[in-house]
Structure formats: C-alpha cells, structure tokens
Amino acid sequence: MRISVIGCGYVGLVSGACLAAIGHEVICADNDASKIRKLNAGEIPIYEKHLDAVIREARQARRLSFTSSVPEAVNFADAIFICVGTPPLEDGGADLSAIEAVARTIAAEARTSKLVIEKSTVPVQTGGEVKRALQVYGKNKGVKFTVASNPEFLREGTAVVDFLHPDRIVVGVEDSAAESKLREIYQPILDGKFNCPVHGKSCPPLASSQFIVTTMNSAELIKHASNSFLALKISYANLISDLCEKLGANVEEVTRAIGMDPRIGPQFLRAGIGFGGFCLPKDVQAFIHLADKAGVDFAMLKEAERVNKRRIDAFIDRARRALWIIKDKKIGVLGLAFKANTDDIRFSPAIEVIARLRGEGARISASDPEAIERAKSVFPDVQYSADPYEIARGAEAVLILTEWPEYVALDWQRIHGSMLRPLLLDGRNLLDPAKMESLGFEYYSFGRPDSAPVTAN
Ligand code: UGA
Question: Does any domain span residue 248?
Fold first, then answer.
C-alpha cells in the first residue's frame, strides 16, 4: 500500500520507517526543510536503536522517501498518518494547533478521498474535531474524509521493536471500511509475514485478540489512560520506597515480590528520581486537564504527579545533607538522558537535578553515552566528557541520574581511587549497595538499607 506520514519527529520517523519495512511504500513529510534535507542525506536526527538500519534498507528498496512538501504527501496516498507534536500548554492541556494545521492542509489539498489516521497522542474527542476541520476546510467536491485513531505505544529506546512486535494494535474507527484499511496496513505484522529488519527473519504472528477495534473516543482514551497508569505505578513504587526508608525495609525486595502477582506485574515499579521524558509527564498533565474539564476529579493522578515532582527535591536534599555545602564543589554526573538507550533529554530528571545543583553553585562535569550533544544546548558551560572516569576524577560526589546499563560495568574501584571524596548518590538504584560499600564508597540510593539519613541530627 501507499502510505503518507506527516511529521518526522520521533513517532513519525519510527512509524514511517517501520511501515516501509513491512512492505508499504511510504512518504514522510515535515515542514522543517532542514530536517528533510538531513534525512535525504542519510542523517538520522534522533538516536533510536535499529532506526538507522531500517531507514537505510527501506530507502535502498525505494520504499521510503522524505519531502518537505506536505501537499505532496497528501496526494501520494489515500491513507495519511498524522504524527505531529502535541506539546503541553501553560494550563497543562495539549497544544493541538499542529494537528489542526495538518487537517486544514489535507482538506485543502486532497484530490481523492482520504483515510486520516491520528497517531499523535491527543485528548479524547480530537478525532471529532479533525473530522470537522476536514469538512469545514475541504475544497474539492466529492472528496470524502474518514478519520481514525491509531495510538502508538512506542517506548523510546525500543521503539522499532515495539512497532514491529506490538503487544496490541488499537484502532478507533468510525466505519468498517476504515477498520479494513487499517487491518490491511498492519496485516504483515498480524500475520508475522515480513522480513524483520531486527531479527533478520519472519516473526510470530499476532493473536487476533491483539488487534483491538474500538470507537475513536475509546482509542484516544486508551493512550492517555495507559501512560497515566504507568505514571501511577512509578509514583506508587516511589512512595513504597519512602516507606521502606522510614521503616527499614528494602524496596527492591518489596517491589519484586508484589510484581510477581500477575494482576500487578513486575514492570514500572523501579524506584528512583522519578519519571521524565516528553510523554509521561505531559500525558499525565493533559489527562488531568481533560478530567477536570469533564468534571471528573482525578485527584489520584494529581497526587502521582506531585509525588514525582518531590523525587527531585528528595534527591537534592540528600545531596545537600551528604555534601553540606554544595557551592564550588565538583560533582560528577553520570547520565543526562531521561532514561537509558535514548539521547532524549526533554523533561529529563537529570537536567532538572543539574539545574538545581548549578543554582547552588556546584561545578558540574557530566557524561552520557548518547545525550551530551543535546545537553550542550541547555548547559553550554558544563564540562562534558564521553569518558565516565574523566568526570569522576577529583569529584566530591558522583551522581547516577540515568539507568544506563554500561554504568553497572564500570571499574568502580578505579572511580573510587580517583575521586576527592568517594561519595556516590545513585538516583536510579542501579548499583549493588553491598558491593559499593565493600569498595569503600559512601553510597546512597532510594528505599534500600543504605538510604538512611546521612547525618545523625
Ligand atoms: C512512554 C510509554 O512507556 C510508552 O508506552 C508510550 O508509547 C510513550 O511514553 C509515548 O507516549 O509515546 P517513554 O516516554 O519512552 O514511553 O518512556 P518510559 O519507558 O515510559 O519511561 C518514562 C520515565 O519513567 C523514564 O524517565 C524512566 O526512567 C522512568 N521510569 C520507568 C521509572 O522511574 N521507573 C520505572 O519503573 C520505569
């Protein structure tokens, strides 16, 4: 099938590349001409595992192209995915102006009937507004617009695998023709019949129950409700962690055991400095906003957000208690990205921690396997090094702020030997407290026996 994808951000690029990988002919459009120039020159603007190879192969097979002309993309295919950004507004709601702009362009430019599929995360009832905009601004008589919602559940860092091997595909449709078209689009994944660019062979088919057909409103709600539930889970684990600290239990032991109950599940129970990124925080805000507008008191979610904000306060407080004076001390930071396996620093807890410590006069030196370049645009005068040993040398504390697995494998003895004071504040519960203490570190993490208050008073 021919497919158009509008918006070459994180969702659009991954979706476009993967749709091409499963056999479709895809054009991806973005009105940022410099981004398109880079993509056409083979540069991938984000770090996402497997994405460069998938894009390269799809382009070689002539199944993927890029354009800065949205009208060209509109008339390339009869199925158009909208993947533009929906950033947060001041009041917590989602800014849907880019969605409206795309809908207007589609309406004005379409010469044949279109299925317009929203993939961007949007508040419930946006599909209805898109439909209205398409009708209001439609220019060509006889052109019919159908709207569908097909939310994405991609996690940064594993987005390509998540797209090609989803745990569910949700489609919210207004009629059976739209459902059939979306089935056709995803058929190679449903049948497991495509040459998987990640595994190099065909992959198991999806169970028919994993293709979920709903109304548009339900599909839109499913996305926000999923992300909000994940946020609730993390904040719950973080509160359990606080209790463990106060009462002398170990959060790792507690969450491992509760996660074995299949009704709870083991994931998203990792305690630490809290959730960040461009999705969870903004989706929680947007969902709270939506519930407020609908007259539903979602205090539970507001509390999850509040708990999350307090994580950074607690971490800074811990650093302050351990270091006493922060001003002029060299602090080494391991991790800038909002989570491992991405270069994304948007709403990263690490960035917030650095901003606060700098505000108190700390001299920060920072490392990250992928995110240094992006961090430079926020803190141009921080000292960066790709070498974690370099940032630890002469430091009075090292802070772990992103859960990069490579940090576990560092030569911690060497780091211990090079620090001015062997103080380790692990904001992600990444390392083994007993091991770190046996190496001679003063080591603090969250909700584990090591996490007792630093001073006696
Ligand atoms: C999230 C959802 O997990 C995806 O399903 C969704 O498709 C995506 O948002 C989206 O809306 O596009 P992502 O933003 O990639 O994905 O990040 P997550 O893996 O959810 O992690 C979010 C934050 O929570 C990170 O800062 C991570 O470090 C933190 N986290 C995660 C914890 O603090 N504890 C945990 O147990 C898990």
Answer: no
